[in-house]
Protein 1
Amino acid sequence: MKEKIQAKFKELYGVEGELFASAGRVNLIGEHTDYNGGFVFPGAIDKGIIAAIKLNGTNKVRAFSLDYNEATEFGLEEADKPAQAWARYIFGVCRETIKRGGKVAGFDTVFAGDVPLGAGLSSSAALESTFAFALNELNGNNIDKFELAKIGQSTEHNYCGVNCGIMDQFASCFGKKGCLIRLNCKTLEYKYFPFDPEAAGYRLVLVDSCVKHELASSAYNKRRASCENAAAAIKKNHPEVDFLSDAKRMWLEEVREEIPEEDFLRAEYVIGEVQRVLDFCDALERNDYETAGELMYQTHFGMSKLYEVSCDELDFLNKLARKMDVTGSRVMGGGFGGCTINLVKKDLYEPFIAAVKKEFPAKYGHDAKIYDVVISDGARKL
Ligand code: ADP
Ligand code: MG
């Protein structure tokens, strides 16, 4: 990919650019915990974006997307927003850098990627983080990494119409080979944990159901409201509770009769999930991937039966994983479609994938896609 990018750069601009990269991400455990002040546990993956970039001495950006085979040019003022959706990610990063007092000089770029788009691996965060990191370096801005992640997040909010949390950009900026990062979404404290399933005889593989059910955004808002309602009820007895992540399981029990059954179940899932992230980390510290995998199944159960954000296709893939003795499997991301993330013993990998390829299309009439992932470095200069 690097060679293709540099070749195109040379063809368009006559010289070579400097190479920067960043990555998509997976989240091993900790789903729907972010807006409840809990933990998430993501890592950057071996699929990302690579960009060749060179300052061009003007106040304009010339950009070429190899994957879309499309060029664009834009200025750096707010009114210069480009028409192409892909270019808005780059423009947004420029604008958000400038808003934070950073300098952004005009530049030329050619870029390409191998994160599947819209599959839940955050190709958009990979794109934002690549440019946030590169522009910081090339302009000598000295913006810290957390702020670079926030530049990506604000780009989604202000230029791409996606009201996302910080996890994706955080993982993409902070990702380290062989490590997952536990992020406390309330305090933004984080800690690296070694995660090397290959060394322990496992592989990490995503199975993409290739479905996206429409309920997602209204259901998301309803889940959030349930969580806030449950947290508010608990707070009456325990004033220190601002988020569900502050609550003990017992404290939820105390308000069982006061809140709708539905809110109770949602909160039960969240409180359990916050604890499961901690238990998952403990298991990793003992190199105990079997316990970690079991926790993934528990998360799937909770997301399916308590939080009710799974769907038939994902439950099917989860059950198939169980049947094939896969160590851990669960729906990854917000739910209602997308991928399951699976921790599989190496010698069970082939039979599991074969079963998916046979049984999923037999039931649903279309293929599931398979993505092998290895936890890798995030934003960096190559
Ligand atoms: P995801 O879940 O993968 O982040 P999004 O819809 O948030 O899905 O982001 C996908 C968008 O990001 C694409 O539509 C495109 O505009 C941009 N993008 C991601 N990867 C690339 C790429 N390799 N080349 C050009 N644009 C890309
Ligand atoms: Mg995205």
Note: Residues 49, 65, 67-68, 85-86, 89, 112-113, 115, 117-118, 120-124, 127, 162 surround adenosine-5'-diphosphate (ligand 1) (CB under 6 Å).
Protein 2
Amino acid sequence: MFSKRNVLIAFMIIIALGILTLSLIYDNVDDVKEDKKTSVKIGVSIYNQYDTFISSLVNHLTEHAKYLEQEKGITITLDMSNAGRNQITQNYQVENYIREDYDIICVNLVDRTDASVAIDMAMKADIPIIFFNRELVEKDLQRWDKLFYVGAVALESGIMQGQIVVDYCKKHFMEIDKNVDRVLQYVILEGEPTHQDALIRTEYVIDTITEAGINVEKLGDEIANWNRAQAETKMSQWLKSIPNEIEIVIANNDDMALGAIDAIKKENIMDPPIVVGIDGTKVGLEAVYNGDMIGTVYNDAKGQAEGIIELAYSLAFDEELPEEIELIEGKYIRKPHIIVTPDNVEEYMK
Ligand code: GAL
């Protein structure tokens, strides 16, 4: 029925169609490869969008992403979601980023001891996670070579806050020591009880003060979860129960220091205690500038944000990190703190 010639023609047509299909597939693969080279999708989940320090860090993330887009001629899609202090919500957000094929996921853990669900999902999908600010436990971080942490050198912040107090005491002890007993009566406002920064700052600030030979007496410690309003409430209670006895308020961050100042101002106290914070947020720096706070410790939100974006870029494009960013043990980027007092505050307000 079929002549040899027709069979040959049909065979040649099939071969030609095959070649055409293969070349189309190959072209598409090439396009995808091309696409990968010029764009990256980063998903970020933060523990609580109403945290002052975190919102400043998030602004810096956006700024640095824009800068890098121009610098490298690429497109960076940076999507943020707020976990609203709920670890289950955060796990869903990570799951969504994975389902929507994001290249890198950045997680500001709600519960820093509960990273396993996010890690399991990321490992399965082979998508790196950059954790930041809320440091996961070492054992979790070591589970996979595509897990990273960007944050501060936690120990430093407590030590530097202590140094601010020590230096201030050297010059003004007589003024601070209201009851002239040569002991510094203090209250301390603490961040979340399981947060590495709250634990470390609380311990090291007092160690640094006492090691400098200053005697201290703790009149109270309260948890205010980094929050200005909660700190104001705690401080008002102290001002009612132990009026005139507090000589210094030590706060684990600027927002809580500002909450204490709000309470002090409302009570209209004649001889108010001195106040010291940590973070160097915009409002914190203003309080140092105005003389409401004796000092703060600059927690480098900008540097940490740059570290996160640069690391995300280097992972997505398989490139080296810039020289000035050190990846410690292949896992950590840690930014140092700086002491800020009225002497240098203007430099940081710019
Ligand atoms: C700390 C910072 C606090 C708060 C907390 C959230 O490093 O000092 O103000 O933002 O992180 O995890």
Note: Residues 29 and 35 are 10 Å apart (CA to CA).
